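Section handout, structural biology tutorial.
Before the tutorial, make sure you can parse a SMILES string by hand: atoms, branches in parentheses, ring closures as digits. In the record below the ligand is magnesium ion, and the chain has 366 residues. In the tutorial you will relate the predicted structure tokens back to the input. Do not try to memorize them.
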Amino acid sequence: MKIVLSHLTKIFPNRNKKVGGDVVAVSDFNFTIPDGKLIGLLGPSGCGKSTALNLICGLETPTAGKIFFGDDDVTDLPPENRGVGFVFQNYALYPHLTVLQNILFPLENLRGERKLSRETMLAKAKEAAHLVQIDELLERRPGEMSGGQQQRVAIARALVKTPRVLLLDEPLSNLDARLRLQTREEIRRIQRETQITTVFVTHDQEEAMSISDEIVVMESGVVQQIGPPQTVYDDPVNLFVAKFLGTPPVSVFSGEIRAEMLYIGDAPVLEAKGLRDQAVWAGIRPEGFVPSPEGPLCCRLTGVEVMGRDRSVVASHPSCQSPEIRAIIPAETPVDTASDTVRFCLKPAKTHLFSRESGERLRAAV
Ligand SMILES: Nc1ncnc2c1ncn2[C@@H]1O[C@H](COP(=O)(O)OP(=O)(O)OP(=O)(O)O)[C@@H](O)[C@H]1O
Ligand SMILES: [Mg+2]
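Predicted structure of the complex:
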């Protein structure tokens, strides 16, 4: 089922008289989510992710704009008639019910012609439990299970009505690091098997990048960029997106374009063909630094950390926004660790330039 979001907007009225202005939680969101894909909705706290999800499921009504599931306009449909499965961050299982009863719950509430026989309900509940691999736990209560198991029950409960759309709001945030990894792979597997169009909300860029077919990066209610994770990482449209994706993060330098050349401090570090003279931000990915004795960018060397397959060079530079620069280099690349300084060449494809005024990407001619 494809989902079309058209000019979707949600404005919450301001109740605090001391600070003016209403809260624009989601602003003119336009996106067609292709059928059967998993979309990661990504952004910092308060950027409007949950609001966008609540609009899609019908828990919130939009101030403006429309939502279509396939060709159906569902904008005014109540949540229970939209055919969505929803998983909340805190599982929201009924503590006094067993796992089986929890999964059965949405089916037992079907009325009229959608009402199912007891056998059909049991069969569907067991099928959903099997899909998330909790067949053994059906008689337990939520309090008697680990966080990851409870999360899977919540997913089974969302899947049991065979929803047209699956919506997951930070479903992994209560799990420890290992279980997070496991459960996110599990979600990916289930999504692939069921082919249900899924929107997955997270503020963790690595999580979103690893499981999504496409990611949507939001800030302050406004969609910044939409695309396959690798494309958004390689080709960010603005400084916000560049900084939000990637660990270790991009290193941002204040630089200047003079005569089609990027200067950091007094050093000419990279050609910038076709760009006019101006102050810029230069964002360099960790893999964009190439140690080289003749490299134009001279940094103070703090240390070199061995990570097995590759090494991390930790350095600093007065023009860098953050106190620490992290360069990731192949383990066999030599670095003189006895020296106070390290010199780098920069990979053009890993060095992005941004307008100092707007933060928008500046593209040099190649
Ligand atoms: N019911 C509401 N009334 C007023 N303002 C709201 C309401 N719900 C959310 N907001 C505001 O809308 C904005 C977006 O909130 P939302 O919950 O969608 O963010 P989020 O991206 O999900 O954040 P988080 O990562 O912290 O969950 C925030 O500024 C929030 O304070
Ligand atoms: Mg939220």
